[in-house]
Automatic annotation (TrEMBL):
Species: Stenotrophomonas terrae
Taxonomic lineage: Bacteria, Pseudomonadati, Pseudomonadota, Gammaproteobacteria, Lysobacterales
Name the record gives this protein: Penicillin-binding protein 1A
Pfam hit, one: Transpeptidase
UniProt keyword Cell inner membrane present: yes
EC number(s) given by UniProt: 2.4.99.28, 3.4.16.4
Length: 812
């Protein structure tokens, strides 16, 4: 007995010692772990990753950018049964425990031991523990991390309400397919808001977080169905959240999840990419995950019109040059079914409505059968390829990949092809510079290169209005006579440059108004020759061009500068708004995730009557231009002028009411802008742009442009409040084809767009500004600057063979 008591005392002493050591160890662990626990108050102000949304100027969705899909929800917007589905699945005693459910842990351990599987077993971690793990801890499996999770859960429970914790859980949980949070999951899998979900859908969503990648309704619908039926719905019934009959009815519903992206209401991928790049430049690379809402200046209706005009215009152009063959050919076996055929084109995107298709059979009557990417089958009749003047069966063979598009009639499908040409369209509000529509190519899916902002092409004759404007600032006017006759420039090494008019021929002395209307090249060359290249470059740079991008030689008069369509449209806006240089811009407003405005654009606006002339000097320049020595200026010839009554001085414009209003700087004299607008309206009424008369508006004006070998076709112009530029060309700089001038390839696109853009828009006036008089000069009545009456000149260029140090060759 004494020995037994001694052993008992020793055991008790060891127990006490081990207890003390254990207590000390636990205390130390608690101290070490708890001291490193984060401040859970941060959960009250947590910023969940949300995508960036881009809208047009009326709030229609254009694009969504971001690594995650997430639409945070508030608990008051979560249906009761959806809450119950998650409680039944993850933590039925959530509203009873204090962050740790010891009964739940014991039950989970027992079920795992009995079944040998975790599938269908309620989680041992409470919702609070999962929130602690999601926001603060790693996925490391260790006792220390688990202990930290328990301590954090208790801490979270002491500082946040149950609903706050539940809301964090619902918004943070991963549901597969880049969907984070219940709001994004409901939208992606079912295309519904939370209040619209049916019981079976709620149960399916509640079953996803345990196996988000391998058990969601898209990746593994059978596994998702089993978890929905056998666990989520049945447990809801067992807990009394739903009746057994309701659970059975929900189980009977077939799995029907499918991918749902946010409905894009305005298709403008080139614009959206511009916005994405600008937002990253402004706020950094993480901007796409901060939930910003970006409103642009783009008008959805005008953008749709631009998309259609570019697509139809390029298809029409391409059809003029015939069928250029199938895109590619696949070797397919004789017994290949539709699934096998469709597999060949599974990764090939549609482009502007042109869908890829594989020819599965040709028929004796000339028709063919094709298979689309979704494995559906179409029979294309002989009429499907009428534009090629051949039947479909003569164009293709089995295994060929072609493009098909829906026709104008119900159920009609047509054979088509990706155009070899490309196009860009830019339309800006001339008064503010706001971009209203922009298209960078035939298809963003086919090529993301934005030709509207990145392609530098020669504008050809559409550049001539800038040359004329510079000349008008040097004393010329629309009635000035300039010779349209041969001219040769020769350098001192004997090399010569002899510019030509398009199509050849010369028309002798002619007024500048007629020279622009008829787009006479030699008149433009003589104008630049007379005023000097240096002066013209400085003057034209006031339109917003970089002086360095303007050729330092006489070739500039023929439009050999390499310019983007966006910069040309901006230049034409100067004419349309009365001479102000406005900056083009696209982001109007930015709101954060809470709806607070963090940026609002305040553009500098054009102002008629504000300021006088541009800063592009009025002083004469040397007659030595880029090495060409033209000698002294010829003496002015007498001019018969009949001054008309001067237009009354306009009343000074009232000061803007908005104290933050900004006025755009003046680029050119308002009177010069008036004269060029008048002349470019004549280009439409009786010149190279007469096709635009179909619009039936007197305020429409512009200028065609074509370059050597028809590599580029342009039409830039204005009407109503808009200045719009259209370019057509090929990315490889090859010719567009015989007689593909600006008036044929580009102007129809411009017309189709402006027909929609100008509908119901008021006619833009072009009243002569103050400082002008109406006079009869050289047999024509024109509005001219008052001071020009004293220095109107008719230049006699005399000898047309000039010596020079350097000459411009390779002129386009």
């Amino acid at each position: 007995m004494p020995r037994f008591r001694r052993w008992l005392r020793w055991l008790l002493a060891l127990f006490v010692a081990f207890s003390l050591v254990g207590a000390i160890a636990l205390g130390s662990l608690y101290y070490v772990v708890s001291s490193k626990l984060p401040d859970v108050q941060a959960l009250r102000n947590v910023e969940l990753q949300e995508p960036m949304y881009v809208y047009d100027n009326e709030g229609k969705l254009m694009a969504v950018f971001g690594e995650t899909r997430r639409y945070p929800v508030q608990m008051k917007d979560v249906p009761e049964r959806l809450k119950q589905a998650f409680l039944a699945t993850e933590d039925a005693r959530f509203y009873q425990h204090d962050g740790i459910d010891y009964k739940g842990i014991a039950r989970a351990v027992w079920l795992i031991a009995r079944t040998g599987s975790k599938d269908g077993v309620p989680g041992g971690s409470t919702i609070t523990q999962q929130v602690a793990r999601q926001f603060f801890l790693s996925s490391e499996v260790s006792y220390t991390r688990k202990f930290a999770e328990i301590l954090l859960a208790r801490k979270i429970e002491s500082e946040l309400s149950k609903d706050e914790i539940f809301e964090l859980y619902l918004n943070k949980s991963f549901f597969g397919n880049r969907a984070y949070g219940i709001g994004a999951a409901a939208e992606y899998y079912y295309g519904k808001k939370l209040a619209e979900l049916d019981l079976d859908e709620m149960a399916s969503l509640a079953g996803i977080p345990k196996f988000p990648s391998s058990g969601n309704p898209l990746s593994n619908p059978e596994r998702a169905r089993q978890r929905r039926d056998n666990y989520v719905l049945q447990r809801m019934a067992d807990l009394g959240y739903v009746t057994q009959a309701e659970a059975d009815a929900a189980k009977a519903v077939a799995m029907h999840a499918s991918p749902h992206e946010p409905p894009v209401q305005v298709y403008a991928p080139y614009v959206a990419e511009l916005v994405r790049q600008e937002m990253i430049a402004k706020y950094g690379g993480d901007v796409l995950n901060k939930g910003y809402h970006v409103t642009t200046t783009i008008n959805g209706q005008l953008q749709d019109a631009a998309n259609t005009a570019v697509r139809d215009g390029l298809i029409t152009y391409d059809h003029r040059h015939g069928w250029h063959g199938v895109e590619q050919h696949f070797d397919i076996s004789a017994d290949a079914d539709n699934t096998a055929l469709a597999r060949h084109i599974a990764g090939i995107p549609a482009q502007s409505g042109l869908q890829p298709a594989v020819v599965s059979a040709t028929h004796a009557d000339g028709s063919i059968t094709v298979v689309l990417a979704d494995r559906s089958e179409l029979v294309l009749p002989v009429a499907a390829s009428r534009w090629t003047n051949r039947s479909p069966a003569k164009l293709v063979t089995r295994g060929d990949m072609i493009r098909v598009r829906a026709g104008s009639k119900e159920g009609e499908w047509l054979i088509d092809q990706i155009p070899r040409g490309q196009s860009a369209l830019v339309s800006v509000d001339a008064e503010s510079g706001a971009l209203r529509a922009l298209v960078g190519g035939f298809s963003f899916a086919g090529n993301k290169f934005n030709r509207a902002t990145q392609a530098r092409r020669q504008p050809g004759s559409s550049f001539k209005p800038f040359i004329y404007a510079a000349a008008f600032d040097k004393g010329f006017n629309p009635a000035s006579i300039v010779l349209d006759a041969p001219v040769v420039f020769r350098d001192r090494r004997g090399k010569t440059w002899q510019p030509q008019n398009d199509g050849g021929g010369f028309r002798g002395p002619m007024r500048l108004r007629e020279a622009l209307v008829q787009s006479r090249n030699l008149v433009s060359v003589r104008l630049l020759d007379s005023m000097g290249v240096d002066y013209a470059r400085k003057y034209i740079s006031e339109f917003g061009f970089q002086e360095a991008e303007l050729p330092p030689n006489l070739s500039m008069s023929l439009g050999t500068a390499s310019l983007t369509p966006l910069s040309v449209a901006r230049g034409y806006a100067v004419f349309a708004n009365g001479g102000s240089r406005v900056d083009t811009w696209i982001i109007d407003e930015i709101k954060d995730r809470d709806g607070n405005v963090i940026f609002k654009e305040n553009p500098a606006m054009a102002c008629r009557g504000c300021g006088g002339t541009s800063s592009a000097g009025a002083a004469p320049v040397s007659q030595v231009v880029d090495g060409f020595n033209f000698g002294a200026e010829a003496a002015p010839a007498p001019v018969a002028a009949k001054p008309a009554e001067a237009k009354p001085e306009t009343i000074e414009a009232p000061k803007p009411v908005n104290p933050n209003a900004r006025t755009a700087p003046r680029a050119i004299d308002e009177r010069t802008a008036y004269q060029l607008v008048s002349m470019m309206r004549d280009v439409v009424q009786r010149g190279t742009g007469t096709a635009a008369k179909v619009l039936g508006r007197e305020d429409v004006g512009g200028k065609t442009g074509s370059t050597n070998d028809h590599r580029d076709a342009w039409f830039s112009g204005f009407g109503g409040p808009l200045a719009t530029t259209v370019w057509v060309g090929r990315d490889d700089f090859r010719s567009l084809g015989y007689r593909e001038y600006g008036g044929k390839a580009a102007l129809p696109i411009w017309i189709d767009y402006m027909r929609v853009a100008l509908k119901d828009a008021p006619i833009a006036k072009n009243d002569p500004p103050s400082g002008m008089v109406q006079a009869t000069l050289n047999g024509a009545t024109e509005w001219v600057k008052t001071e020009d009456l004293d220095r109107v000149q008719d230049f006699d260029f005399g000898q047309q063979d000039h010596a020079t140090d350097d000459a411009a060759f390779d002129i386009f």
